[in-house]
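Re: beginner question about structure tokens

> Can someone show what the tokenized structure looks like for a real chain? I only ever see the sequence side.

Sure, here's an example I had lying around. Input first:
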Amino acid sequence: MSELHVIFGTGPLGKWTARELVKMGKQVRVINRLGKADRLPDSVEVIAGNAFDAAQNIELTKGAATVYQCAQPEYFEWAEKFPPLQQAISMPPQRMGQSW
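And the corresponding structure tokens:
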């Protein structure tokens, strides 16, 4: 099995990243709030998760070679939500020695 790559977010950037990784033969897991996403290759694992929950993020990214942060709060919420989102997603890979 190829190395696991985990992507937070299934907007245009997250989906593009997933498709390109699949083309490279990588195992891909994407995480979003609903656990559903369309227009992705069948091999992509789609998981529901709360990107603001660092403890859950540790579990969801366990074994990943690389973690990609493609999730974004609504634009009008950036000042309030973007810093804690970044911290919750970037902290687990740093703790586990993963690249992101």
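Each token stands for a local structural state, so reading them left to right follows the chain. The chain has a mean pLDDT of 92.
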